[in-house]
């Protein structure tokens, strides 16, 4: 009598999601509040706060590096960045009124200049004899390339506000145009002003040339130009205060392009023109921490003077639909940087990463950041800060055809 075949021994499934290790992020790189190592490192560089055109006589609340502040422009055009709680009895200067020489608190009328100096205490017997210690906490601000920049670090270590050879001089007929609302906006197109994830997500993205071929070209369709269909051959190199990559592509039309992208300490990016126009990049971008779990991408660009009336480059693409009008399904069909980076969570779980050959640039960035944390902890100045107001930083970025 035939016996029924035995069931094969059950195989033990491998690699299941059960029993995964503890999860953690790189807190040393992602925590940016006052007193944290990365917060202190970030505070040793000038950081852009808002586009100049959005700093007006209407006080505005801004959050940067985990600090809530008030930004405004006095009646004579000077930008100011103050701690919001009035030093008298603590109401917010958000409710203040701006005058020619400062901002007046709504409650009892103390008036502060953009550098925090108290100009008037109208309820006091001698309203103009403010005591010197009655100074509203403030941060130095300056304007360049259409952005308002702040220095939030120790005053005695304040470096020069940097200048970059990719941004100046302007070419004939050019002007600066700056954006402070992360995904950009023009006309109907509106992106989130602040993105709900760590500054490190965008910072990692800068030294990630391969996602341009995948995410932006073959996966989601052509989000920039078709030249990116070719998987690049990439070399990463350290420069004095940053990392660059050279992405070489042999194009279908026989041309060769070397696309050089630059990241500079601690959060600055010089991405060459995404339409592959030759030459130096026409913009600078910064991934600025709002707090540990939020960031703001600010950009300044050199543009033709009439560009303010035209759509931003790239937004004319046939398949372009403003981000805020897209359904979840449309965003699944054509995810972009926002979806990929928000998808990593508010702070990526670095314990779960598997960095491989194509992530070499990210490893170089993080090592440079960590060396700088040590330098600052030991009392030194981090790489890239300069005290020479006239120095112009050379930016190697560009699309170079040959
Ligand atoms: S609380 Fe601002 S003047 Fe009194
Ligand atoms: Fe991207």
UniProtKB/TrEMBL annotation:
InterPro entries: ARHD_Rieske_2Fe_2S, Cholesterol_7-desaturase, Rieske_2Fe-2S, Rieske_2Fe-2S_sf. Gene3D superfamilies: Naphthalene 1,2-dioxygenase Alpha Subunit, Chain A, domain 1 (3.90.380.10), Rieske [2Fe-2S] iron-sulphur domain (2.102.10.10). Keywords: 2Fe-2S, Iron, Iron-sulfur, Metal-binding, Oxidoreductase. The keyword Iron applies. CDD domains: Rieske_RO_Alpha_PhDO_like. GO terms for molecular function: 2 iron, 2 sulfur cluster binding; iron ion binding; oxidoreductase activity. It comes from the Bacteria. Residues 1-34 are annotated as: Disordered. The keyword Repeat does not apply. PROSITE patterns: RIESKE, RING_HYDROXYL_ALPHA. Residues 46-150 form the Rieske domain. This is Rieske 2Fe-2S domain-containing protein. It comes from Croceibacterium salegens. The lineage of its organism: Bacteria, Pseudomonadati, Pseudomonadota, Alphaproteobacteria, Sphingomonadales.
């Amino acid at each position: 009598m035939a016996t029924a075949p035995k069931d094969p021994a059950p195989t033990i499934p491998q690699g299941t999601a059960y029993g995964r290790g503890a999860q953690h992020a790189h807190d040393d790189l992602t925590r940016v509040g006052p007193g944290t190592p990365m917060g202190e490192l970030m505070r040793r560089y000038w950081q852009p706060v808002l586009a100049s055109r959005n700093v007006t006589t209407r006080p505005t609340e801004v959050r940067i590096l985990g600090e809530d502040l008030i930004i405004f422009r006095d009646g004579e055009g000077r930008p100011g960045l103050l701690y919001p709680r009035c030093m008298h009895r603590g109401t917010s200067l958000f409710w203040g009124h701006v005058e020619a020489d400062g901002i007046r608190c709504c409650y009892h009328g103390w008036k502060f200049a953009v550098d925090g100096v108290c100009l008037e205490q109208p309820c006091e017997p001698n309203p103009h004899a403010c005591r010197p210690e009655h100074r509203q906490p403030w941060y130095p601000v300056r304007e360049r390339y259409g952005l308002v920049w702040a220095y939030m670090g120790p005053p005695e270590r304040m470096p020069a506000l940097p200048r970059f050879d990719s941004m100046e001089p302007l070419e004939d007929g050019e002007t600066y145009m700056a954006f402070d609302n992360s995904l950009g906006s023009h006309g109907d197109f509106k992106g989130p002003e602040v993105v709900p994830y760590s500054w490190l997500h965008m910072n990692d993205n800068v030294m990630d040339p391969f996602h341009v071929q995948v995410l932006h070209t073959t996966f989601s369709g052509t989000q920039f130009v078709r030249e990116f269909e070719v998987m690049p051959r990439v070399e990463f190199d350290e420069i004095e205060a940053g990392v660059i990559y050279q992405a070489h592509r042999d194009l279908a039309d026989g041309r060769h392009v070397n696309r050089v992208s630059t990241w500079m300490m601690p959060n600055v990016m010089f991405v060459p023109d995404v339409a592959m126009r030759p030459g130096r990049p026409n913009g600078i971008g910064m991934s600025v921490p709002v707090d540990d779990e939020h960031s703001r991408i600010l950009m300044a660009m050199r543009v033709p003077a009439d560009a303010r009336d035209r759509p931003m480059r790239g937004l004319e693409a046939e398949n372009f639909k403003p981000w805020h009008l897209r359904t979840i399904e449309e965003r699944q069909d054509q995810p972009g940087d926002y979806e990929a980076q928000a998808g990593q969570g508010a702070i990526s779980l670095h314990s779960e990463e598997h960095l491989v050959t194509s992530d070499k640039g990210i490893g170089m960035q993080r090592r440079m950041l960590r060396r700088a944390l040590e330098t600052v902890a030991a009392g030194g100045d981090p790489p890239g800060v300069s005290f020479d107001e006239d120095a112009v930083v050379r930016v190697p970025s560009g699309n170079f055809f040959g």
